[in-house]
Amino acid sequence: MIRKVLAVTILFLFILSMSGFAQDKVYMYVGVSKCATCHKKAKDGEQFKIWEASAHSKAYKMLTSEEGLAKAKELGVKDPQKSEKCLTCHAPEFNKEKLWDKKFSLEDGVQCESCHGPGSEYKSNKIMKDHDLAVANGLLLPTEKTCMTCHKDNNPAHDEKFNYKEAAKTIAHPVPDKKKK
Question: I need a surface site. Which of 12, 34, 115, 158 has the fewest CB within 10 A?
């Protein structure tokens, strides 16, 4: 009897592991162009336009600007677009190549998924229409702590003190309340 129970248990665990239930989901980075598909319309809040006008969208390119190269030299960095010291904040997904979808581009800098998490599982319109379902499928809701991973006071690349409340206003991109219309 014990052998049968053990055999059934082992078979159950094997089937469970093969079905993917016992494995963690792997979320892929789909890139800002995928997010822009839905998040560029005025009726939805023009989030892409807001991001595109922000310093976040230019974070990777900024590394080769005169100011960026000077700061890199000051920090002892030869090529800031290849340095972990710089890319950690200017292109946060730089070391996650195995998780990049074919449309993902490091050159997009600090993009949607840098703050909201990899979008492969929540990118569909059906899921995004249900906030709780989107969160259950990997959508992250950034907080001050999220921003402070790069905008910390001891970051040698930044001279000014970071004011989260003021900075959050410059990148705010809420979805309009459709009930008010």
Answer: 12
